[in-house]
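Per reviewer request, we include the raw input and output of the structure prediction for the construct analysed in the revised manuscript.
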Amino acid sequence: MLKSSFSNKYVEAGCDEAGRGCLAGPVVASAVILPMGFKHELLNDSKQLSKRQRDSLRIEIEARAIAWSVASVSEVEIDDINILNASFLAMHRAVESLSTLPELLLIDGNRFNPYPSIPHECIVKGDAKYYAIAAASVLAKTHRDELMARYAMEHPQYGWGKNAGYPTVAHRDAIRQFGVTQYHRKTFKLLPEQLDLFQEAKPKK
């Protein structure tokens, strides 16, 4: 059973990210402030929900939240600062974009770079424990999937509309056949054998 709040004393924002383990595309984070006492029968960790459920919840969360925001860190930035720091930066950008200033951040996971002037609590598997983090999980996931579907229209051979950039067998087979795109994370191990993938500026048609 998810909890409505960590403490009744503060305005809390749940924070989570999506796309950390992907081979392509940005990492996307969301910050969500829900009304006090918010409850929902369906809302849970986005990974436990179907796409239809996530899409439906996204509409409801965006309508009912006191404030919500979504922010990203590009694949170029990920290669520059590493994926862990990029995940934290995406959360910082999401918090910074909130229309209401939170007094406490609830972070999914066990590590975080502190946000200036706002205390935080790291909660392992927090997206299955607190509604605000679960809501952030849903928004981050749905917004990122939508973005990767748009990228898939540019590069349909990688199947991003289905795999969202994650390292599926089909995605890696496409990398072997077509090379990499501007959206691939060059510092990631794109293939187990890590071929010299970066000689071509564009993938083969």
